[in-house]
Amino acid sequence: MNRFLASRLFDGTQFKNDVEFVVDNGKLRFESHPSGSDVTRLEGITAPGFIDVQVNGGGGGFLNADPTLSCLTTIVTAHAQFGSTALMPTLITDQVAVMEQAADAIAEAIARKEPGVAGVHFEGPHLSHPKKGTHSEQFIRPISEREFAIYARTDLGIKMVTLAPETVPLSDIKRLVELGVKVSIGHSNADFETTMAALEAGADGFTHLFNAMSAYTSREPGVVGAALWEDNAWCGLIVDGHHVHPASAKLAIRSKQRGKIMLVTDAMPPVGTDDQEFDFFDGRKVIRTGDRLNSTTGELAGSVLDMAGAVRNSVNTLDVTLSEALRMASLYPAQYLGLATKGRLIDDADADFIVLDDDLHVLQTFINGQRV
């Protein structure tokens, strides 16, 4: 049992000063006066750990290139230093054999209770060719029974699939939902009606809002219009200054029901490293220019954003309050993923918490009460 005293604590709802708590078997318990003198004082802002639903890589590791447990550990370790205590390792459009290998690695991580791995996010391959972004066109395809066998697995933790609803029959979307898959709409050129039908069939999220989706216009609201219109759907938002104009991000936050915009990184291997490039699909490379990533064919190719950076950017460029930015990085993604014991620092919650300095840089990260 470890004892802590937080000088300032955000519990997911409000800030409190001089809060004492204990970590017992990976869970939090708040006590007025923990007994004993072995209390660790946490200076700065103690907050719920960040939860990222879209992480392709980090620490030099790229899940598509190395779908193994070792790579997952590398990615989790890289993002933990920036406050992420749970994430959805994300495999972008690839061959079905690579999907199977990634699923096996995720299953091994879940079985071993590897810290930080919440499940798996398959971003593709059932996407729209016109909105493929940097995804490899040669691997974009309909859902086959071999892929359904992956999605039907019960050993993968939380399962999430990003798809374009104009390329996937509603019956397949309903089947995915029945298999316990969270269906997110993205890389889609669908019209408003097709998107709304997919939501009616059980889809409940939008992957990187505004990016790689049909735009909102006066006569055709498109995927963006459906995302902003549907109160019950969550939207991931990449706040890196490159993917979305600040005014568009502000408009989305103002338009959506509170709690339905969550920060995501869409992070790639260079996060947590000084690497300036890495190998990609089809003989391409992804080149880093400052804090921007582009494929050698020109498209944005994920980001070098981390969750602490997303929080800072939301506060500094989007005029979001600190409490709301922290919820966008922790509570709201926890609610989207159904992680009832994460995203808050309350009795019986998971002991996943971070300590930030006044500039919102991460000083310490704890997963299951253990510093990582």
Structural summary, described in words:
This protein is α/β, with parallel strands linked by helices. The mean pLDDT is 96. The chain has helices at residues 69-80, 96-111, 145-151, 170-178, 192-201, 222-229, 246-255, 307-317, 322-329, 331-337, and strands at residues 2-10, 15-24, 27-30, 39-48, 50-55, 57-58, 61-62, 84-92, 119-123, 158-163, 181-185, 205-206, 234-237, 261-263, 277-279, 285-289, 292-295, 353-356, 362-367, 370-371. It folds into 2 domains: 2-46 and 355-371, no CATH class; 50-340, TIM Barrel (Alpha-Beta Barrel). An 8-stranded parallel sheet has the order 5-8-9-10-11-12-13-14, with helices on both faces. It catalyses: N-acetyl-D-glucosamine 6-phosphate + H2O = D-glucosamine 6-phosphate + acetate. Substrate binds at residues 134, 211-212, 219, 243, 300-302.
